[in-house]
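Researcher: Structure for this, please.
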Amino acid sequence: MVEIPGPETPPLDPVYVQWSAAPADRAGRPLLVLLHGYGADEHDLFGLVPYLPREFVVAAVRAPLTPPFPAPGFSWYPIEGLDGRDPRHVTEAASRLNEWVSASSDLEPVGLLGFSQGAAVALQAMRLQPDSYAFAVNLSGYVTPGPLAQDDVLAELRPPVFWGRGTHDDVIPDFLVGHSTDWLPAHVELSGRVYPGLTHSVSEAELGDVATFLRKQLDEPAA
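Model: Predicted structure, C-alpha cell format:
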C-alpha cells in the first residue's frame, strides 16, 4: 500500500478561500469544494459558480505550494524534477485537503470538483476518506497510480464521479488517461464525456454536463 507521508506540504490557508455564501447563509446546504489546476489560484474556478446549481455552497481553495519561477500561481504538488508527479506528493496534498474540509465546515454532503492537478487531488482525497465525500467531478485530471488502503471501501460505496476531458488535451500523459480509464469504473459510478477538439481546458458544453451531474446529486442525496 502507498503510505501517507509526513507533513511536507503546508496546510491549506483558510484566508485564501473564496466562498459563494456568507456563514449565515450556509446552514443546511451541501458543500462543493473547487480545486484549481497548476499555476492558478482560488479565483480561477470560482468563475464557474454562475454555471453551478445555486443550492450548493461553493468553496474555492488555494493550493499550498508555489511553483518555481517563472510559473505563476500555486500548485498542489510538484511536476518538475526527477520526482515530478510522484504519487506520494498527490497523496500528501489530498491529506491536506481532507484536513481542511474536516476543520473548516460541518456542511454535508460534501462534493469535490477539480481541474487537472486539482482533479487528481480530489480523486485521491476521496480514496483516502471514502466516507467523507458524496461525489467528485474530474475535469481534465486523472487517478494517481498506486493502491491506497481504502480503495476496497471506495469500490463498495461506488460514489458518483463525472470525468470530462478533451480529445486534444496534450497535458495529461496517455498512460495516466489509460490508467484512469481502467481504474475508475471498478471503483466508482462513472459518468462523463470526451469532448471533440477540446484542449486542456473547460468548454461550455462540459459545464452544462457538469451542472446536470450536480443537479442529479441534489435529487439523489447520499445515503
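Researcher: Any notable elements?
Model: The two ends are 29 Å apart (CA to CA). The mean pLDDT is 92.
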